[in-house]
Amino acid sequence: MIQNKQEIIQLLLKYLEEQNHDKIQEFLEKYQPADIAEILKDMDAAERGKIFKLLDKGAAALVLDMLDIGTITSLLETLGPQYIAEILNEMSSDDAADLLGHFPEELRNTLLGLMQAEDAGEVQGLLEYDIESAGGIMTTEYVAIPKDITAGKAIEILRKTAPDAETIYYVYVVDSQNRLVGVISLRELIVADPDTLIEDIMHKKVISVSVDMDQEEVAEVVSKYDFLAVPVVDHDNRLVGIITVDDVIDVIYDEASEDIFRLGGSTELVDDYVGTRISRALKSRLPWLSVTMLEGIIAGQVLRGLENELRAVVALAFFIPLLTGMGGNVGTQSATVTVRGLATGDIDENNVLSVIFRELLTGVLLGIINGILVGSIAWVWQKNAVLGFIVGLAMVGNMTIAALMGALVPLTFKKVGIDPAVASAPFITASIDITGLLIYSTLARLFIGFLL
Amino acid sequence: MIQNKQEIIQLLLKYLEEQNHDKIQEFLEKYQPADIAEILKDMDAAERGKIFKLLDKGAAALVLDMLDIGTITSLLETLGPQYIAEILNEMSSDDAADLLGHFPEELRNTLLGLMQAEDAGEVQGLLEYDIESAGGIMTTEYVAIPKDITAGKAIEILRKTAPDAETIYYVYVVDSQNRLVGVISLRELIVADPDTLIEDIMHKKVISVSVDMDQEEVAEVVSKYDFLAVPVVDHDNRLVGIITVDDVIDVIYDEASEDIFRLGGSTELVDDYVGTRISRALKSRLPWLSVTMLEGIIAGQVLRGLENELRAVVALAFFIPLLTGMGGNVGTQSATVTVRGLATGDIDENNVLSVIFRELLTGVLLGIINGILVGSIAWVWQKNAVLGFIVGLAMVGNMTIAALMGALVPLTFKKVGIDPAVASAPFITASIDITGLLIYSTLARLFIGFLL
């Protein structure tokens, strides 16, 4: 986003050499935390530490939140845990918990020990929650007001708490037991008569999420209702935190990446592609390859059953890549559409049958179109009508099964509680290889008499 | 999200029958627009129209924005264009333009003609922009203030304009030529001394997007800086609109879906999976299948060159699915990681070489591990050491090339301006089938003497 990053870095290094610290501070004030993070990422460890230390602690907290774990670790080494703990005190509790969650336990405890007791307590509380649940992404820095004060008084409270709150654009209303009873937006407070009671202008039907809701569902709620934040409640409807839209955006990016990686047959994490070590990349890919290997061997065993026919008519072998390739293609298409439909909520229990029927019909139609085409090509190419007939018919069966499996496998996974995205391209295609070759070899054995 | 949708619908139908319109209005007031939209979707056209007409126009506008195009068309048929035009007047200009952009030109012009001149003009202006650009997703309902007023005066302006503005949480500051010179958040206005001049407290370094920026880039800007809204400027830095975070969330969902579909080898749109006609599904899938078919035939031609060897050693055919399957798997993995890295900005010009090197190394390592494994299996299974050697060595070559192609093809596409996601699983796997079989048949021909 910043055009002249290298120039900026050169300038900062020059100021550093001149020990012109005021100039550096003045210069950095003009940039957004995200930009400063980008600049720091591209510097050497020693200079990075010096520049970071020149930021005031509030700004440093915002910058730290934007940095990747590698850069943060380098700052930790250069500046020491005491300094980083001071910055963590300034961070919002959810961001601090997020960051600490990435560290090994020992380092995490050292840093928590160095933080202020109150902040450390809040962060420790958040660390208890599953990192992919509402509790794991929420912040405890929200504004809550009692219902029996006036709009004017509420704005006064906001004036005081604004610097510490993550957002003041929604104000949550609680009763004496801290139970969530209403919500009012800052926008509504601004236009309200200052003497009105909050109780009379608040919305009583508040949409909230439970502290153990999965983060993907939280993202759906926020995006469905176009919220800027959503309150998080425990099982007694007591307000325990809020989740803001910027964190939801991160969730949406991460969940989409996770689905894309799983569909592509690897479990690699999105966080830092280039930083991921090769050993980790191998580890995330090998399990999928083992599945494919096993299925490849089964497919080979199926072909072994066709040994005599293959020996008699070698041309049968020429169509193996065509059949498996096109079947895999159709299966991947169906699986992709189904997995994404499940992720966006487009497919639910009400229309699951129509989805299956639809894919079945699509498979049959694609099979007929492509079967006629491929069959004709095989006939002309190998000058053998029977071979063309076998290949064409195998294509119809193959594509029908492929489309059906592409829809059924992710749906079944969802039903039994496995992430449907695990029904990835490699998994689906390899399974379809087996069924496709079974159909092909059955047909070949049936009609071998006419081939010779 | 709403648990008892069917019960709610039954209740509404009962009230309708009793002509108890007050009760219906009172009942619906408790629900969010998104929930009312969900309820309406599941009703019959006639009753849907009656309920929709009972909503006050402001609420109806919010509900209309949440409905899919099929349901809106049904409302249009039941209630007539005049009524819908009245609701469009109440919608924010970007949502109205979005909706009208989905209609055929004639209907669009009819509706624009029936709308109030001022609203219609704004909407028409927005319809000029590319729907995937900043101009296409922005709204013109923002709050802009001059820089020489006080904070107190600014809040007063906000009080008046709040009902019409899309967001008042960011207030943009413009000069006499409507050029963007600053920004201040409502939060900052609230805590500021009412007598301070805006000029003295506003942020002068405003991050804005250009009206023709691609929506995917806009989403990156908003998510990078954790903004609730971003201003849109023309080429003279004049403020022409704003884009709010809720629209950005829609963009992120849509772009992720588009990538996922393309990776899966179909161009189907996400909007309304179940509503997409089969004919359209076929149309989006067939082009990819033709590519696969062509490549399958080429792969067949490669095998044809191995005809004599296959006749002599039929077992060579048994390993075709294993080789193509595993090669395709590695290629898909590499392509997925690369495409997603490009989409999230993780991969850029600075690290493209290290990405290629990394995938190459991964391919070689995966090839060696799997080659040894598969080769040993082939040896034991077919009791033929030479066959095991050929299959194992082919696997090494195949996986190396597969990983390299998986990274290079999307990178090349990006370079020449094609969406890298087009380097989809089917495209990559089919190409890898050909190279893999070329390697395999070359090795088989070289070593056939030892096989017999």
Give a written overview of the molecule.
The structure is a homodimer of 452-residue chains. In chain A, helix 5 runs antiparallel to helix 6 and helix 19 runs parallel beside helix 21. Chain A is mainly alpha-helical and 452 residues long. Chain A has three domains: 124 residues, MgtE N-terminal fold, CATH 1.25.60.10; 101 residues, CBS-domain (Roll), CATH 3.10.580.10; 174 residues, Tetracycline Repressor, domain 2 (Orthogonal Bundle). The N and C termini of chain A lie far apart (68 Å). Helix content of chain A is 69%, strand content 6%. A three-stranded mixed β-sheet of chain A has the order 1-2-3. The mean pLDDT of chain A is 87. The relative contact order of chain A is 0.06. Chains A and B meet through helix 11, helix 12, helix 14, helix 15 and helix 16 of A and helix 11, helix 12, helix 14, helix 15 and helix 16 of B.
